[in-house]
Amino acid sequence: ILIKDGFIPAEYRGLIDKSRVQFFTKHWLFNDMLNAKEGEIWREFRFNVMLSAHDLSIDPNIQKEKVLVQGVIDCVFKKGEDYILVDYKTDNATVDEIVGKYTSQLNYYARACKKLFGKPVKEAYIYSIKNCSVGRVPLTDVDDGEYNPPVRPTK
Fold first, then answer.
1. CA 137, CA 127: separation in Å to the nearest integer?
2. Spatial distance between the Cα atoms of 42 and 154, rounded to a whole number of angstroms
3. What is the pLDDT of residues 92-143, one digit of tens each?
4. Is 114 left (phi over 0), alpha (psi -120 to 50) or beta?
5. What backbone phi and psi angles, to 5 degrees, belong to 74?
6. Which one of 41, 44, 50, 69 has the fewest CB atoms closer than 10 angstroms to its CB?
7. What global pTM score does this model have?
8. Can you point out the beta strands (E) in 56-99?
9. Is 46 exposed, middle or buried (0-12, 13-18, 19+ CB in 10 A)?
């Protein structure tokens, strides 16, 4: 189903540990992703946004500057009216260590989504492929005082 539905390219079929995939397909997070309405789930979502430097750096010389942030979000979807971020990691570490290591990255992603969708991300999760476990990422909402009208991404 993951290959058929476009989650995984067909050429990766032989590299997949089916037991880890099967575990994830039984997880509530995967079910929430599957239940997202058409047009309300984005996978491999590429973005470029300008964010305030004070959200990204403690360097006093650039606090009033804007910084171009770009990246690729593994998955963002709407659950009801809320936006949920999901990032997959293959690190050989505990899920708590992985969450600690990537909290800043997911907070940048959450800021980008807020700018693009016009609404803050409610929750962010990391799925550890090696551990078959999910960790919730603590989000901080830094408001740069600007209103930027949402630009809805295309599929």
1. 10
2. 8
3. 999 999 999 999 999 999 999 999 999 999 999 999 988 899 999 999 865 5
4. alpha
5. -60, -45
6. 44
7. 0.78
8. 66-79, 82-89
9. exposed
Residue where the block lists tokens 């990422």: 137
Q: How many CB atoms lie within 10 A of CB 97?
A: 14
CA 21 to chain centre: 19
Give every strand in the sheet of 82-89, ordered side by side.
41-52, 66-79, 82-89, 121-128, 133-137
Dist CA 103 CA 11 (whole Å): 31
Structure tokens at 61: 């010389």
Is residue 148 within 8 Å of 115, Cβ to Cβ?
yes
> What pLDDT is stored for residue 37 in this prediction?
93
End-to-end Cα distance, the chain: 20
Q: Which helix (H) or strand (E) holds 98?
A: helix 95-117
Please check whether residue 140 is in contact with residue 153, taking contact to mean a CB–CB distance below 8 angstroms: no
Look at residue 122 and give its three-state secondary structure: strand
